[in-house]
Amino acid sequence: MIKRKDYLAILTIVFMMITSITGILSLDFTYSYEFINQYGHSVQMYGYGIYAFDTYFQAPISIGTDICILFVLVPVFIYSYVNYARKNDKVSELKLISVYAVALYYGASIAFGLTYNQLFLIYLGLFSSSLFGMFLHIKNIEWEETCSISKGLKVFLTLSGVALIVAWLPDIIPSLIKGTTLQLIGVYTTVITYVLDMGIISPLCFVCIYLLNKKSPLGTVLLAIMLKLCMIVGIMMISQTICQLASGCNLPLGAILTKSFSFVLLGGFAFYFNQKMYKELIG
After folding, report:
1. What count of other Cβ atoms lies within 10 Å of the Cβ of residue 120?
2. Torsion angle of C-alpha atoms 122, 224, 91, 150, degrees rounded to 10
3. Of 192, 195, 205, nearest in space to 163 by CA
4. Interatomic CA distance for residues 49 and 86, integer angstroms
5. Is the pTM of this model over 0.85?
């Protein structure tokens, strides 16, 4: 018997299915062409499907993301929503908040990071429904419990926060020193991943440590969000790397090890701490 309903969750699921399925149907690497971007550089464009006007570097990443969203995040979101709807407990609502946050990360990435296309209103809807859905539950949840923070968890959150800086800062600093654009800027004006990871997610890792040390209930809510996001991003890195390799993109071994593998490894640790956290909260 369904006890609680959340129409924003249903909308978020539908929007994610539309965006991810459309993206996966754009999987065809044979339509690429050369284009001179606004910076006067020659850029290889993807040329097919919903990502026709995105770069040949970005489109495979987006398709890899869509694969993870459709086959991982959507089922997890549905499962979390069903548990929330049938149960009248705070833990199920906390889990729903955490998947909302991942959907918001995805929605922000495609709404702000991709070239304008026919799905823009769907991207906007996903961003809006996940944002307000997450904050609605954060507002409603009467969370008073706090989970303990071990040395291992502190190290994990610290490494996660630092890893996001270490992964992307080397791409940015040389361009600032030389006064040029980013090497893989393509047809874009900025890279939304840098903004989200370095400007929001990385600082939140350290805010989470501070709040957990202070025994603040908000720290537990943030921890649930950070762990779920790390887990999904770890899986996402696998599908993104596979799509990039399938496209013929020349990925240096160093980039795979320092970026893809490091995020997968952090995702594995996030899964461990996530299981440990909920065991402690459920008792």
Report:
1. 13
2. 180
3. 205
4. 39
5. yes
Cα 25 from Cα 17, distance rounded (Å): 12
Report how far residue 2's alpha carbon sits from residue 233's, in angstroms, rounded to the nearest whole number.
31
| Structure tokens, 179 | 């006064």
What is the pLDDT, as a whole number, of residue 258? 63
- The distance in angstroms from the start CA to the end CA of the chain is 25
DSSP code of residue 258 = I
Only one residue has tokens 């050369």, namely 34
Distances (CA, A) of 32 to 29, 43, 46, 85, 222: 7, 10, 5, 45, 41
Across the chain, how many H-helices and E-strands are there?
Answer: 11, 2
Whether residue 262 contacts residue 163, with contact meaning beta carbons closer than 8 Å, is answered with yes
122: closest CA among 246, 16, 10, 250? 16
Domain ranges (residues) in the chain: 7-282
| The token pair that represents 256 in the structure block | 């795979």
Band (168; pLDDT cuts 50, 70, 90): confident
Helices 262-282, 90-113: axis angle to 10 degrees equals 150
278: its two tokens: 């909920």
Q: DSSP letter at 31?
A: -
- Token pair for residue 26? 């754009």
pLDDT at 2 over 60: no
C-alpha count within 13 angstroms, C-beta hemisphere, residue 216? 13
The residue behind tokens 């089922």 is 75
Q: Which of 277, 11, 269, 278 is nearest to 136 (CA)?
A: 11
- Mean pLDDT over the full length of the chain: 91
